[in-house]
Amino acid sequence: MAIRVYNTLTKRKEEFRPLRDNEVRMYVCGPTVYDYTHLGHARTYIAFDVIRRYLEHRGYTVLMVMNFTDIDDKIIKRANETGEDPKELAERFLRYFLEDMKALKVKPADIYPRVTEHIEDIIEFVRKLQERGYAYEGSDGVYFEVQRFKDYGKLSGIKLDELRKGARVEPGEGKRNPEDFALWKKAKPGEPKWSSPWGKGRPGWHIECSTMSTKYLGESFDIHGGGNDLIFPHHENEIAQTEACTGHEWVRYWLHTGFLMVNGEKMSKSLGNFVTIREMLERYDPEVIRLFVLQRHYRSPLDYTEEGMEHAKNNLERLYNTLENIRVAMERAEISFKWGEEEFEAYEAIRSAREKFYEAMDDDFNTAEAMKAVFEVSNAVNRYLTKVERPKESILRKAMEFFRIVSEVFGIFEDYFREQRAGEEEELIRLLIDVRAQLRKERNFALADRIRAELREMGIQLEDTPQGTVWKRVKV
Ligand code: AMP
Ligand code: ZN
Predict the structure, then answer these.
(1) Ligand 2 centroid to 369 CA: how many Å?
(2) 233: preceding bond cis by omega (within 30 degrees)
(3) pLDDT tens digits along 399-422
């Protein structure tokens, strides 16, 4: 069955067919790093994490790129307020962002390009636009001339004349038309700057994503995403720049997430109504936050409420209880020589819920519907366990297999499964490491080396580091 995605560009659901078989190249706009990451960001990044995880689960190799806007008006402004160097400020919040994402179990992007490390590429891109007649130099920077790009508005539906009505050229701005946007900003005194053919300055915001995405993913790729607020002007401008530069279609599928809302308003830094991930993590397990986000389809707005969080917390607890019930039942389970009515019933419930899970995820990554299927399986197993004295191992395995898929796709229960698999084995390895250390202390190197060699033959390599002995799995 094919995956279908809602494409903001065509405004309908389409069958997902990547440009290359088996590979998906995706770019998600990253944060402007001048403050702590909040729950609104988490909503968007968890949503794209699950999209990526699902594509990987369905067998695609995903190459994912996410930029860091590490130089920008907001960063400069904040640095002036705090008296910090803008570069250091950005660096600090970039690290915090990565820590927060890790805590939330968001898989890292394959490449995280930063604007300040791609200035040359950006200059080259702007130069090309100028060469092709889409860009011009004004007194305070280089601008993209919007009216030259005939397809302008194709993503957001905005019309050039509407745009003109709503904007004007401010005093001191060197652009020709109110709708034109900056590709390169000439430096004002005291601002960070880089040399360019147009004098010292820095890139505009939109150009970084056109430059860095095409640099790493090619002139055409499959998915470009971000929050709804990026559709206009950011993504509209990105399209104009890139397609003007290459002369052909750029991104196939545009995906946008709905906002995380607080009392009817978007959670945002500027409104000051945000909760940081750090604050959230003090109160909730990261998996509760993931579940809270995934209980809604990624395109729908999501209201942040205490009740919503409590609901997610209870749901997660219910699922962990089920996992525990299965684990305990496994100990008294038996291999089946025949199935009774209870088994057929449980099997059918698990099978059909699993089908629903895939149908939901195939349908534009509908995690909200998929979640219902997860609870169907949970309920079915619990019901089965109350009905039978000696559960059949095969039924429990079917349920476990399903939860393992959920774990992979939703990014929850990962530790649980890892521990299940590795728990006992790790204990034994640690014991052998301790024995070996003791043998070395007693200068019994022959036996110590034998332990190391035999573990190596089993695919477990010991490494002595200043912090002690560590081990890793290697191919035998
Ligand atoms: P920013 O750091 O503000 O540039 O935002 C980085 C990403 O987070 C963008 O894709 C935004 O659309 C997204 N984002 C910011 N606030 C929210 C929110 N309240 N709900 C969902 N996504 C958001
Ligand atoms: Zn972007």
Answers:
(1) 29
(2) yes
(3) 999 999 999 999 999 989 988 777
